[in-house]
Structure prediction request, 167 residues.
Amino acid sequence: MVASAVRRLSPRAARPLCSLNCAAVTEELFEAELFGFARGAFTGAVRERRGLFEEADTGAVFLDEVAELSARAQAKLLRTLQEGEIRRLGENRPRRVDVRVIAATNRPLADEVEAGRFRRDLWYRLDVVRIAAAPLRGRPVTCDSCRGVSGPRPLEPSETLPFSTPN
Prediction:
């Protein structure tokens, strides 16, 4: 919800937003998902495919659960952020990309850096603007406010629903 709001309020609002749940992607698929691949790059790559960074060019990439990335994946992501370019699997030619990265995690990255589980240089690249959001479980919200829909008003404690159930 926060990533969508940040994008919606940015100058890139009309541009693409591509998302990736880093905890749900295996180490082997990470590079193909983010950077794409050339035809014949591996068994089963029968055609070329653009990765999320190319799909989001001039827009934004949302990386959910970024603290779950392996050290190898962190290094590849860092290079992309530093150089502003990606290299598809199976290609030697770099491709320029212009994306904003929005990252989220349920763990404090500063603690992950101190514990040696997250790269300090990548953390500096990602920690440009920090938005701390309380977990949903800690916020009193109604289903209507989560959906962005205004429905009937909430019932008062003394009110009952306009139907009854058999006893």
